[in-house]
Amino acid sequence: MKGSEIIIIGAGGHAKSCIDVIESEDRYQIAGIVGVESEIGSGLFGYQVIGMDDDLPQLAKSFRNALVAVGQIKSSQTREELFLRIESCGFEQPAIISPKAYVSKRSTVGKGTIVMHHALINAGASVGENCIVNTGSIIEHDVVVGNNCHVATNSVLNGGVRLHEGCFIGSGSVVRENIEIGEKSVIGMGLVVRHDLTAYSNFVGS
Fold first, then answer.
1. Sign of the torsion angle spanned by Cα atoms 132, 129, 141, 195
2. How far is CA 85 from CA 38, 93, 103, 203, in A?
3. CATH assignment at residue 150
4. Do 86 and 108 fall within a single domain?
5. Which of 94, 119, 134 lies at the terminal end of a domain, its last residue?
6. Are 70 and 15 in contact (CB under 8 A)?
7. Apex CA 126: angle with CA 123 and CA 129, to 5°?
8. In Å, what is the CA distance from 168 to each residue of 48, 98, 120, 131?
9. What share of the chain has pLDDT > 70, as a percent?
10. Is 5 left (phi over 0), alpha (psi -120 to 50) or beta?
11. In terms of Cα–Cα distance, which of 124, 166, 178, 62 is closest to 187?
């Protein structure tokens, strides 16, 4: 069992960004990538695709750590399923935090979450498990982000916002302070949210 190695689950565009953050953090060595059958033997930035999802139980015998590196546009379902599958195989799923991000020591970040370059998580904030806090996003003081959320590039959650499980906040969107957004809601790109939204809301503008 190799404690300092990690395998990446997913071989697409988001995986490229995850690889860059992992390399920057310099805490884990990437041992390989798990993709689909047609990707086996191919590479991504010099890392080989070493197996498929069905190989995860066997890979767990050799590697301790794994990270879901599949993107999340709108629905969180795929990432949720992969997170649970990895967990059931016995992998540890560490939080990955870019050294170019600012994460307050008075905040918390759940397992399997990745915090990308130049993101900010301020004091008193709590980010759940299996989330993407994407490049340049801001999570202000006392915000609560549930599990399986994607806070996309350059979006802003102002103080006291509550973002329930499985939400997607589009690039450049801004959520006013103390707003509550129900689970599985989707906020489109470049929008301003000024009122609470119920679960499964689809707020995408024109």
1. positive
2. 21, 11, 28, 30
3. 2.160.10.10
4. no
5. 94
6. yes
7. 145
8. 30, 21, 17, 10
9. 98
10. beta
11. 166
Burial of 6 (0-12, 13-18, 19+ CB in 10 A): buried
Residue 158: which domain range?
95-201
Handedness of CA 92, 95, 96, 99 (dihedral sign): negative
Per-residue pLDDT tens over the stretch 6-33: 999 999 999 999 999 999 999 999 999 9
Contact 170, 151 (CB under 8 A): no
Name the amino acid, one letter, at 174: V
36: phi then psi, degrees, rounded to nearest 5: -100, 170
Position 62: which residue type?
A: S
Q: Which two tokens stand for residue 181?
A: 């957004």
Instruction: Determine the residue type at 82.
Output: L
